[in-house]
Specification:
This protein is α+β, with helices and mostly antiparallel strands. It is 13% helix and 33% strand. The strands form 19 sheets. A six-stranded mixed β-sheet has the order 5-9-8-11-7-12, sandwiched between helices. The longest helix has 18 residues. The N terminus is likely disordered.
């Protein structure tokens, strides 16, 4: 059954939920995962190793392994997507006990690919687990070995690899076939994703000559177990019963849905739930391609949510908690399943922190204090998912975060003394790794978040904070709104309010007026407890709009009819109030970029490499703050491949004259055929049949395999042969045909195309029609054989566009380095190439070469070269566009700011800006913690303190957090200048882009006035502030950093009188 897998009834997607890899959630008894290697606990993705090296991206590794072992690149990529989401998981196993990028197996279900890879490559199995490049190469070696053993015809197409994929699954027979179903479904649909390092991976959708539904074992289809529901509760689901030991048949009412991520494949999860040693299950498992399997009746109690088991229905999704994004197909399909069960059980279709409603597994951990899991992870877009469950538009929100790099940071400000913290709330719509701001709740502090709505309406307002057990329990939030202001006091302490952490906590629902600035102010003015006020993020979410109109469409998309393999576009134009967004749909379903589609959220949708599955009705949903307007539908149709022709004429100036040649003695004649399509006035050629061996040869090279009809025509004449000998060459040999050229006996010969018959021609072959005096016989009069024009007409066959066999892969290149993108394609005609950056054609220049060849070279690479590169490959059958390949240009991290931080007793931490060489650290012992902020994410090359060098004292530890690096120092008290260099600090994705800047500042203890000398003025400054509270204005006078300006500071200053600072070199 030939299927292009582009749609599914109940879809889920790439990276979702986690239940199977852990001890039994209801029983909490330790189990051995698949009977191997002891107990297994799922790790949060943040704990997984992440190595980003400029010269070691994964894309080229996949490409090289595919070539070395003659394994289809797209198969390797799909296995990498399923195996790890292209993440370096180190030694952390998947649910199937798979290791590394490709999840090489070592389990008791038949999976031995890890050890086989070690034997084939000579690489130690432990290195195969932890070295991503070795892991990919090992997987390719295993696939190659399986292909040899299965005697796979590697020229027969991707479908021939089915038995290899089933073996690679390394599970029980039924689950291995389900694994193969996922693989070929993704091969059909295509993939487009990126990993946590930002490296992109994609393959285009393609025809798959496999009936993937036949891979569902028959035992799973028509029957259900004796203790089952009778039929799947969710009609589109495939019944796949869990082992009865892994759930309870006790009936219970349900009011909660729990979303999980599996840390592995759906097939591995299903196998685990059918194994009594697991002790776990969920009601549903959702595969990457959107297939939904039901394993436990909804009314029964699955073991997945600890304290929430009795009241909840669990959905486990294939993928990993650490995935940074999830395909739309997964969201749509999973949401459809959840919507159905919520309707039947009366469950609230709302994301909540604790039952009842829809919750994540992390909510069980943090609110019900049961278990230790963090799935589905911050990559799960709850706002979008809940909108899909309710079949509404995504919410319109405005988030303000308190640290640089956060959303709408320019809308944040402070009053009082605040400090940075590297801790961050774990929410899907906040910025990971940037930290938050804090102040001790002692009075005089305000963190202000501002928002000016474009639309008058009703808004919900939320606040978020990270996990902390020393956070204030009485943080006042003053919310301004159209009716005035409201004060809400919230407990932000994780001990006393565990559900508040990592959550959008509702402050209330308020009316806001368009164009007016509103604020949320976190303050300790009237409520304080001397604990820490943690200021992270605030969100406004519009509930309803009270005025305005939806967009007006001024240009609707138009119907398109194109040839197979061609590229076409649909365009919409609209006007309206506020910000306008676009979303293209096909046959009523939202499209996503990837495969054949690009620009799904822009005014122009591009459909490339059009085939039968792209045929349908396209329209655009145009949305602003006041609603959505749908464009007219426009039909995309495929052209029936019409006939094409090729004419060769025998005189200069005629069509394709270069394809004409002669042997013997021929003369020119002014006589010319008047058949349609010939060139008037150029004449023809003639030779007398009395001399044999005089040949007129017309040639044609076919670009397409198919059936062709050949024709001949000539001038009006009565002295020509009645039996002119024509020799027609074709794919099956040659055929002799005799044609009457004489108008006395064949009236009209000169005014029409006279058929020579229909023949098969092969693409790329050169074929001829030879008119020869040999064998031609005369009629009446003289015997002048005429050679004028021959025509080839394409009758039937496929005008096939080129096929891209290897797409360009993403490049992470150092500034000043070289980047190379390569595309490989096959086709039935001469292929041409055009490279594009961000969809615009490139031209050769000083740094660009090969823009119209299969390989594009860029050298030296500059920052402006960063972008998306693709190649348009064109043949006679049309054009195809390669996948986008991102070029990331890495530069050395640059220092944005630096502070020297000390904690002044109960007064808290205070910072001295040491970004400039004239800065002075004047406090006791000199710098002990320097916080350096870089302009980009970075990596520590060794992870040791030697990654930073100091001219004074010793670096004792390094603590990276987002763009910040905390450097702990000892014995750097001066006097003198402290110089910090960063030989082990490099761009996060590029180990070669090492920081080159040097930080230098002066150290002079007891220089309270920061004038570069310790003198009487410092003593006076300290004396004038004796016994005052330490604050942001006077903390430099607290020389001994004990939180009090007192006589000890005077003594410390007196003991250093007449010392002076030394300048930076």
């Amino acid at each position: 059954m030939r299927r292009l897998l582009m749609t599914a009834v109940c879809v889920a997607a790439v990276v979702l939920v986690a239940v199977p890899v852990r001890a039994a959630e209801a029983l909490e008894s330790p189990v051995t995962h698949l009977g191997l290697d002891g107990d297994f606990t799922s790790e949060p993705a943040a704990s997984l190793p992440s190595q980003g090296h400029c010269d070691n991206p994964l894309g080229p590794v996949f490409a090289a392994a595919a070539v070395e072992y003659r394994v289809p690149l797209e198969l390797l990529l799909v296995l990498g997507q399923i195996g790890s989401g292209f993440e370096d998981r180190g030694a952390v196993p998947t649910v199937e006990w798979g290791y590394g990028v490709m999840a090489l197996r070592r389990n008791k279900m038949g999976g031995d690919s890890l050890d086989l890879a070690a034997a084939l490559t000579g690489i130690d199995s432990e290195d195969l687990k932890t070295d991503p490049a070795a892991n990919v190469r090992g997987a390719a070696a295993v696939l190659d070995e399986y292909a040899r053993e299965e005697r796979i015809d590697r020229q027969a197409g991707i479908e021939a690899w089915l038995p290899v994929v089933i073996r690679y699954a390394g599970l029980d027979d039924e689950s291995s076939r389900l694994f193969a179903r996922t693989v070929f479904s993704l091969l059909g649909r295509g993939i487009s994703t990126s990993n946590s390092r930002g490296e992109a991976f994609s393959i285009s959708a393609r025809w798959i000559e496999i009936d993937i539904d036949a891979l569902v074992p028959p035992t799973l289809l028509p029957e259900v177990s004796p203790a089952s529901c009778g039929n799947p509760d969710y009609a589109p689901a495939i019944w796949t019963p869990a082992a009865s030991c892994n759930y309870s048949t006790t009936n219970s009412d349900k009011d909660t849905v729990i979303i999980h991520v599996a840390e592995g494949s759906a097939a591995g999860t299903i196998s685990w739930f059918r194994n009594c040693s697991s002790g776990v299950s969920t009601q549903y498992v959702v595969d990457l391609d959107g297939t939904v399997y039901q394993m436990v009746c909804e009314k029964h109690i699955a073991f997945h949510g600890n304290a929430a088991n009795n009241r909840s229905i669990g959905l486990e999704h294939a993928g990993y908690t650490g995935d940074t994004s999830h395909p739309e197909a997964m969201y749509v399909g999973s949401a459809a399943c959840v919507r159905d069960m919520c309707d039947r059980w009366g469950i609230a279709k709302e994301k909540r922190r604790q039952p009842p409603g829809i919750i994540g597994h992390i909510d069980v951990t943090e609110c019900l204090l049961s278990g230790s899991h963090t799935d589905p992870g911050r990559g799960w877009d709850w706002g979008h998912y809940i909108a899909l469950v309710n079949q509404t538009s995504d919410p319109t929100t405005f988030v303000v975060e308190s640290r640089p790099g956060g959303k709408n940071y320019a809308h944040y400000s402070e009053v009082g003394s605040f400090s940075d913290s590297a801790v961050k709330s774990n929410l899907w719509d906040t910025t990971a790794g940037i930290g938050h701001r804090l102040a001790y709740s002692t009075g005089g502090h305000e963190a202000i978040y501002r928002y000016t709505p474009a639309v008058t309406g009703t808004y919900r307002v939320f606040a978020a904070w990270p996990t902390s057990t020393n956070a204030s329990r009485v943080v006042e939030h003053v919310v301004t709104h159209a009716g005035g202001s409201a004060s809400i006091v919230l407990d932000t302490n994780a001990d006393s309010n565990p559900c508040g952490r990592n959550n959008w906590n509702l402050l209330g629902e308020f009316t806001l007026t368009a164009g007016v600035e509103y604020r949320v102010t976190q303050t300790d003015a009237t409520h304080r407890d001397s604990l820490v006020m943690r200021c992270d993020a605030v969100k406004w979410e519009r509930v309803s709009a009270s005025s305005g109109n939806p967009p007006t469409i001024t240009l609707h998309p138009q119907p398109q009819t194109v040839a197979p393999g061609a590229t076409t576009t649909f365009t919409v134009a609209a006007t309206g109030e506020g910000t306008i967004s676009y979303r293209w749909r096909k046959d009523g379903a939202n499209l996503n970029d990837g495969g054949h589609y690009f620009g799904v959220t822009t005014t122009t949708l591009t459909v490339s490499n059009v085939d039968a599955d792209d045929v349908g009705l396209y329209r655009c949903a145009v949305t602003n703050e006041y609603g959505t307007t749908l464009s007219n539908e426009a039909m995309l149709s495929l052209q029936s491949t019409g006939p094409t022709e090729f004419i060769v004429e025998s005189r200069s100036g005629g069509q394709n004259y270069a394809n004409y040649s002669e042997t013997g003695s021929w003369s020119s004649s002014t006589a010319k055929s008047t058949a349609p399509g010939v060139t008037a006035g150029i004449g023809s050629r003639l030779a007398y049949i009395s001399t044999a061996g005089q040949d007129a040869i017309f040639s044609f090279t076919s670009s397409t395999t198919g059936l062709y009809e050949m024709f001949v025509t000539g001038p009006l004449s009565t002295n020509t042969p009645t039996s002119a000998h024509h020799i027609i060459s074709h794919a099956d040999g040659s055929t002799d045909v005799h044609v009457d050229q004489n108008n006395n006996s064949n009236a009209g010969y000169s005014t029409r195309w006279n058929s020579l018959g229909q023949y098969t021609l092969d693409a790329g072959g050169t074929y001829t029609v030879t008119i020869t005096t040999t064998g031609s016989t005369a009629g009446t009069g003289s015997t002048a054989l005429r050679a004028d024009a021959v025509r080839w007409l394409f009758i039937s066959g496929s005008v096939i566009p080129p096929t891209i066999t290897q797409h360009p892969v993403a490049q992470n290149v150092c500034l000043g380095g070289a980047a190379t993108f390569t595309v490989q394609a096959t086709g039935e005609s001469t292929l041409s190439y055009q490279w594009q950056k961000n969809q615009a054609d490139l031209t050769n220049g000083p740094r660009l070469a090969g823009v119209t060849s299969a390989t594009l070279h860029i050298s030296p690479v500059e920052l402006e070269d960063a972008g998306e590169y693709r190649c348009v490959v064109t043949g006679d059958g049309g054009s195809v566009i390669s996948n986008n390949a991102a070029l990331t240009v890495a530069a050395p991290p640059a220092i944005v700011s630096a502070v020297s931080r000390k904690v002044h007793g109960q007064a808290g931490p205070f910072d001295i800006n040491v970004s400039q060489p004239t800065a002075i650290e004047s406090r006791q012992s000199g710098p002990t913690e320097v916080i350096v902020t870089f302009d980009r994410l970075f990596q520590l090359l060794t992870g040791a303190s030697a990654d930073v060098q100091t001219s004074q004292g010793t670096v004792t530890s390094l603590a990276p957090a987002g763009h910040e690096l905390a450097v702990e120092l000892e014995n750097a008290g001066g006097p003198g200048a402290v110089t910090l260099s960063f030989p082990g600090i490099a761009d996060a994705g590029n180990a070669s882009a090492v920081a080159t800047e040097i930080l230098c500042f002066r150290v002079l203890q007891a220089d309270a006035t920061n004038d570069g000398q310790v003198n009487i003025f410092d003593l006076v400054a300290i004396r004038n502030t004796l016994n005052q509270p330490v604050d942001a204005g006077n903390f430099t006078r607290d020389i001994n950093v004990d939180g009090v300006i007192n006589v000890f500071d005077l003594v410390a200053t007196r003991n250093r009188l007449n010392t002076a600072a030394m300048d930076c070199p």
